[in-house]
Amino acid sequence: MPILSFSSNDIDVITGKKTRTIRKAWKTPLKKGDRLYCYWNLVSKEKMKIFEALVTDVENISFEEIKDNDELAMQEGFKDSYDMLREFKKMYGGQIAGSDEFQIIYFEKLDIDDWKGDKIDEKAMITKRADILFDSGKFDKSTMCYEAALRLDPDDVYLLNKQGDNLSRLGKFDDAIGCYDKALEFEPDNEYILNNKAIALLNAGRIEEAYKASTIAYNYRPSSPIVLYWRGFILEMLGRYDAALRVYDKLIVIDGENPEVWNARGNLLTDMGMLEEAIQSFDKAVEVCLDDSEMDAGAINRMGNAYIDLGKFDEALECFNKAISLEKHNIDFLLNKGVVLMELGKFEEAVDSFNKVLLRNPDNEDAFFLKEECLENF
After folding, report:
1. Residues ≥6 apart with Cβ < 8 Å to 291
2. What is the CATH number of domain 123-376?
3. What is the residue extent of each domain of the chain?
4. Which residues, at least 6 apart from 26, have a Cβ–Cβ distance to it below 8 Å?
5. Residue closest to 281 by CA, chosen among 254, 295, 299
6. Which helix (H) or strand (E) holds 20?
7. Could you give the CA distance from residue 110 to residue 208 in angstroms, rounded to a whole number?
8. Degrees (nearest 5) of the Cα angle 159, 162, 164?
9. Is the pLDDT of residue 150 over 70?
10. Rounded to the nearest 10 degrees, how much is the dihedral formed by the CA atoms of 9, 15, 16, 21?
């Protein structure tokens, strides 16, 4: 019973794109017609059977012939022969000699009804792998897995929605919208999918259409926090500030312990020129954070900008110091701190802040000219 183990990164195997592999020849080499039992990560806790296959052809080749063969390596999905060699050394514990025999094994995946061993839920297995890759931010690989799962069940609403989310993160908004539209054929009242479609339309620059999708979602679930949050943002993008503020005010009643809600409201109030109210919202966002890891440095920075516009420079400086304590190398925060120090007449400290900006970005013209202005006031 020949067993092959593939790594978690070898996604082409799951999608059916890859139907061959190169392995060190066993004592009893593989031959055409042999049945393969294929697994993910055979020697780890993540061990999982992925399919059975039949060997369709075999080529015998020495390690000397493959170790510098870039073309062969790239056909196998490696960047070059060095990358392939590194993988082989890891696979075989570094125990490879130039005379060692390898095999290029060609195989064909068998339909699950033709398996001789334990059968698996192939769609569930592929979906699980896709979800893990998605949660890890490996969207280029997870989209391949969702695509493979959809080939098994093209009408699965969960998969269509997840593939839409995945494509959105890859910037393929039109394709994502197509996935959401197909999912909505089966569940037209699913507010989460409608909301996801609205976000994709917004990112595609189709703001009026995003608003229409958001309205449908809102009509189905007018108290959904996620629908309200994005509805407020879309209204803001449309310049309908008063309507957006009413949405955020409704959202605060429902989800008032969420700092992102208060941040969004503060941003809107800043754009509306309602600076005192904006500061109150930003302040509330900080207050409801459970710990510093949840604090939004960007929101604190915007609070500082609002204080500057109100002429409250000491309060602004306190905000910028807090934001910098959370993101100590953020150039925008350091630059803003320098500006407010200049307003307070603390030119030497301002120069120090501008120097930190220039250390990170020597071509920052704002920091350079503001520093020169400070030096003239010493």
Report:
1. none
2. 1.25.40.10
3. 3-120, 123-376
4. 2
5. 299
6. strand 20-24
7. 48
8. 110
9. yes
10. 0
CATH architecture of the domain formed by 3-120? Roll (2.30)
Q: Which token pair is 198?
A: 């609205």
Q: What share of the chain is helix, strand, coil (3-state, %, to 5)?
A: 60, 10, 30
Packing angle, helices 259-271 and 275-288, rounded to 10: 170
Query: pLDDT of 17-55, one tens digit each?
Result: 788 899 888 888 999 999 999 887 776 666 778 889 999
User: How would you classify the pairing of strands 35-40 and 3-6?
Assistant: parallel
**Which of the given ranges, 136-145, 238-247, 313-322, has the highest pLDDT on average?**
238-247
Question: Does the pLDDT value for residue 1 go beyond 70?
Answer: no
8 Å CB contact between 285 and 266: yes
Q: Enter the pTM of the model.
A: 0.73
With 0-12 CB in 10 A as exposed, 13-18 as middle and 19+ as buried, what is 34?
A: middle
Residue range 275-311, pLDDT digits in tens: 999 999 988 888 887 555 556 788 888 889 888 888 8
Cα 275–Cα 227–Cα 206 angle in degrees, nearest 5: 85
Q: What is the side-by-side strand order in the sheet with 20-24?
A: 3-6, 35-40, 48-62, 101-109, 20-24
- Among candidates 270, 263, 260, which has minimal Cα distance to 306? 270
Q: Do domains 3-120 and 123-376 have the same CATH topology?
A: no
Phi, psi of 289 (to 5 degrees): -65, 135
Helices and strands (H, E) in the chain, number of each type: 19, 5
Give residue-wise pLDDT tens across range 7-18: 766 778 877 778
Cα distance between residue 277 and residue 270, in whole Å: 8
Contacts 24+ apart (CB under 8 A), 163-171: 164/193, 164/196, 164/197, 164/200, 165/134, 165/196, 166/130, 166/134, 166/139, 166/142, 167/143, 168/196, 168/199, 168/200, 168/203, 169/139, 170/139, 170/140, 170/143, 171/203
